[in-house]
């Protein structure tokens, strides 16, 4: 018997170490794809071309096409310069043989008619907004929505004022090239994209009237919270209705939940991304439409993070007509500051970015990287849903029910000041009591009772004591749920 136990001991020890120390790289691998020696790929957006190439536009005004990006290093990546001399493009979209790009001053479409791999036809699609040369007047663009529209999110001038037409707005460019003002109140976007249902979101960065960074739903006609661009309402010719009431310009500021009662067009952030805790500069937005080829998170949204060189995972739900949901850590360790994010139907995530201007933990000037799923399923909180008296958690693997105790969970709740000053500390802190209300028979979900639930607060959950049936801890044991509405 002692002989058998001694033989089993190494296996037991190996299993215990794995269970105690799961790593992100066990489940998702990051592969850097080298660029040509003379290229600087500060990628602002990525698009997938039907013939298998991957397009990336750079902050330095170039568009590159990459062959074999999915097969590298088994096949060498081949880079071809498709276009250059553009004005800091931060959007790419493919449609009907044309590659569209969103530059600072216009939407341009281009194609390669003579087949030499380089664009030789360029057409202006729309340029009905302004620029004045200020470094901060970025223009981010989406891919096409189901109705054939491109969505544009325009940064303010210098991050505080709107000195050029429609700065601080979201615009739609229709198939025929006409522009439709769609939402106001933008401050400093880092990307614009869709969820799995096709609704449109953008990421906004901490600053004036933004206590922290967040993922925001672009409901047509909405006011996103920063009033500086509202001076352009007379030019919108009634497209958005009446100009929103200004928020209070006071020393003490207010709260978003309060001003929702005073400003009818104000839409709160769908998912708040607490500053410094999870990142400083959210960027590209991409739903996983690979139907499981990218792992167990099909239908969820992935958000780039520039400063911390990360990718976040977001679960969204609609409650009482408003989007809200939870942000989960997903993957870190990228070479530079991620800006462009794109997931293929084959389940490959591409990202590219830059450290210029703000710096990034990755340390490199730029990156172009591929993320692939290893096929192993991490033990994670899969979804976090609001209930009338708490939250329901689902998991990627069955939990060890004996670990689902009240002591396994802790929570804090907080919000931010809605003010003209730059950013905000966490305020109005609450320490709710968390108790396990029920555990599903299959161990794949449980319900938590939370007292009190605080409308308008971020509810930061830590599930440090929870284990899977195999004895593994959660790969990421924290979640940040933005509770805009409490379900009825």
What key phrases describe this protein's structure?
Immunoglobulin-like, Neuraminidase, eight-stranded antiparallel β-sheet, mainly beta, 5% helix, disordered N terminus, four-stranded antiparallel β-sheet, 2 helices
Account of the 3D structure:
With 488 residues, this protein is mostly beta strands. It folds into 2 domains: 24-377, TolB, C-terminal domain (Neuraminidase); 382-482, Immunoglobulin-like (Sandwich), CATH 2.60.40.1220. Helices cover 5% and strands 38% of the residues. It has 2 helices and 32 strands. The strands form 7 sheets. Strands 18-19-20-21-32-31-27-28 form an 8-stranded antiparallel β-sheet, with no helix packed on it. Strands 1-24-23-22 form a 4-stranded antiparallel β-sheet, with no helix packed on it. The longest helix is centred in the first third of the chain and has 19 residues, at 2-20. The protein starts with a helix and ends in a 6-residue tail after the last strand. Mean pLDDT is 95; it is low at 1-19.
Could you provide a short overview of the structure?
This protein has two helices and 32 strands.
The rounded distance between the terminal residues' Cα atoms is 60 Å
Strand order of the largest sheet: 18-19-20-21-32-31-27-28
- Please bin the fraction of helical residues: under 10%
Provide the number of structural domains: 2
CATH-wise, what's the superfamily of the largest domain?
TolB, C-terminal domain
Largest β sheet strand count, sense and barrel closure? 8 strands, antiparallel
